[in-house]
Amino acid sequence: MGKTACARPLLPGSTLSIGGKDVEVDASMSKEEFLSGRAFLGATAAKPVPIPKPTAPINDIKFKKHSSGLKIDSKPGAILKTSDRAGVALRDEENEDTPFRPELKPKAARMQFKTPMLNSTVVPKGNPSIPQPRHDPTLPNALIMKKPTIVPKGKQVVDVVVDPLLSKHLREHQREGVQFLYECVMGMRCEGEGAIMADEMGLGKTLQTIALLWTLMKQNPIHDSPPVVRKALVVCPAGLVENWRREFRKWLGNERIGVFVADAKNKKITNFTKGKAYNVMIVGYEMLRVVQEDLKKGHGVDIVIADEGHRLKTANNKAMLAIQSLNTERRIILSGTPLQNDLSEFYTAIDFVNPGLLGKRPAFKREFEVPIVRSRQPNASEAELEKGEARWKELVNLTSQFMIRRTAEVLSKYLPPKTEHIVFCKPTTAQSNAYRSILASPYFTAALGNANNEMALQLITILKKMCNSPSLLKSSKDGEDTPSEMLQSLLPLIPPPILRSHACSTKLRVLDSLLHRIFNTTKEKIVIVSNYTTTLDMIEQLLTSLSYKYLRLDGSIPSSKRQPLVEKFNRTDQRTAFAFLLSAKSGGVGLNLIGASRIVLFDIDWNPATDLQAMARIHRDGQKLPCKIYRFLVQGGLDEKIYQRQVMKMGLANAVVDNKASASSFSREELRDLFRLDERETCQTHDLLGCKCGMKGAPELDDIDESSADTGDMTIGDDEDEEDDDAFPVLQPASKVDMAAQEAKIAQRAQNKQPKLKMLMEYAHINTEYLRDTTNPDKSQDDDDMALLVDDDVLLEVLREPDCRVGFLLTKSSS
């Protein structure tokens, strides 16, 4: 074991440290017995012969009492031979006549080695013929798995109990999740052995997975059978590999389980496949393709966990093919967003975890995908809507056998409250002029006239950047930038001073005011998220000009440095790192940024899942402060139109993957609506909602008439004749027609077969002009009411500034 120095007597019960191990002296034995080795042969060894008394006293060595132990006096030339295992009994000068009688416990000496256990270890007692579970199922809060209904002949069933080391940390929804996954992989819920865990972000999918793997690796419901799983493979984005390794260490320590991380420096996969030291292998999706052949060797893989499984989008996905080549039946997909955005991808995910459960792809497309997609088209008939809804419910019913989905609402009692603000920023004059100039270009006319969707997508990208700042158009760092030919034609339409300055960005002005208030009135920190690195560059310049310290994570940061960057931000104070600039595509998933309690989504994405992932970075386990979430939109611009489509679930996001849409994604009318800058003083989103609150606070549920909500008509009333009359308005002189109102009404009717904006009735609707209106006699009372609704003192001060660019606010609080 090793060597150590000891300055005190080694008596039975004494402890010391040797070679990093704590050693306790059990008993003493004679030197002769030690040298004979009988005690090390086990219980079958012959009994030791009696030890004769020494014929002569040991006078060569004398021992004197000393404050630090025993002092040895020996004659010159004497040789001292000692052994801590020889059990030599020491005597002092005062009792020299005491005979040498080493203490001996023959029974203890003959005992075999016994595995040491903690005092808290519970050893089940009972009839040895009755199977005993690994952990006591009778303990309080014991998490017991479901027993199998089919048992091999001659075998007995034993309780499978999750290790109390983990189960004591599991919340109620996590206990249910572990039980659900266990039943799925054991084939108790459906014909397959796969599962999809589609819990929202922050619900602890990683911990639930670790609890499942640890249970499967140590237990089996069939008594006297080996564990269900010997080798497990966790596949995840490269940026989350280190996070998974830390989670295993956090919950199971370093000694209980061996975790092998496959990366560029550690490619010897045989250590995992053929060795016994590692039970779990963590690998990134890209690295998986490199090592897939080596994974087939050795003992093989018993279960595969695909984290952020929505990356397995198509049947020809290389990572998916690599996993399928392992011939592992137990497969689990973890995804923070439901896999419902694209039914073809949804089928691929289902067929991945449970092959053949939904039949062949052509049959699925005919019976489910086509009717459901058709029902979400703008011109769908009532019959198509009814059929699509019925097919969707049936699909949900089928997949509920192996897919579990919980929302963030279950965390409301564990996490601090959060408040979400939809901030409508009025474009600056320069921004509006540049926006109109771009819309008047021949390219937009051509996109509308010929329905050239490739050109339309490029123009949509231009308008998205225009909403952030016109100055971003001259940058060419982002991969989504339009071709240089189009830029060369459009840039001359914008005055050079606007292209050179970020000051014309309405979002940046609002952000400037918000940062100033947060930094000077609180000790909180903030995360700022964007889909574009050029936008992050612009925000970085703002922070530098204000002398605010910040950290940044985008695609240029190596995956090995990302987690240390996150940890640095979480453990430092506001003066050291006030802001964290985050690329939505590089760090939108998996990161825990609880060091901040406020987050700004500077721009919006077609796919609502991208925004939801980013918003969940701060409202997670470990957060101590109330969270404030700000989503910036340009009022009347493309931002607001995209947000409307997110909320209404029109299906446009279904066809948009990585900001690329199919040719059938947009109709001509939809493009015309997208390519329109609404410069009215009212909020278009609120107008479409048809709410009568006047943007003065929280709406009442009866503010929207059910018949109006169903037809998309703005007229409030129950009389069917009134609705028919309103559908065909009487002729009026052109000078008396309100064209803006007519356009709004027509746009509303165009949505009459789509899911409505009813979810926005959960928000408070606020026109910020009321906060700046000094002529209101009831201003004091109104301000108090608004403050209760907004639930954010910092934002209230920003909204009260005379030159505030925020026109309208939708706010919702969980407090």
From TrEMBL:
One record GO biological process: double-strand break repair via homologous recombination
Domain named Helicase C-terminal: residues: 510-672
Listed CDD domains: DEXHc_RAD54, SF2_C_SNF
GO molecular function: ATP binding; DNA translocase activity; hydrolase activity
A Pfam family this chain is assigned to: SNF2-rel_dom
UniProtKB keywords: ATP-binding, Hydrolase, Nucleotide-binding
UniProt-listed InterPro entries: Helicase_ATP-bd, Helicase_C-like, P-loop_NTPase, SNF2-like_sf, SNF2/RAD54-like_C, SNF2_N, SNF2_RAD54_helicase_repair
Keyword Nucleotide-binding attached: yes
UniProt xrefs under SMART domains: DEXDc, HELICc
Chain spans, region Disordered: 701-724
GO CC annotation: nucleus
Chain ranges of the Helicase ATP-binding domain: 186-356
Cited PANTHER family: DNA EXCISION REPAIR PROTEIN ERCC-6-RELATED (PTHR45629:SF7), SNF2/RAD54 FAMILY MEMBER (PTHR45629)
Name used for this protein in its record: DNA repair and recombination protein RAD26
Organism: Aaosphaeria arxii CBS 175.79
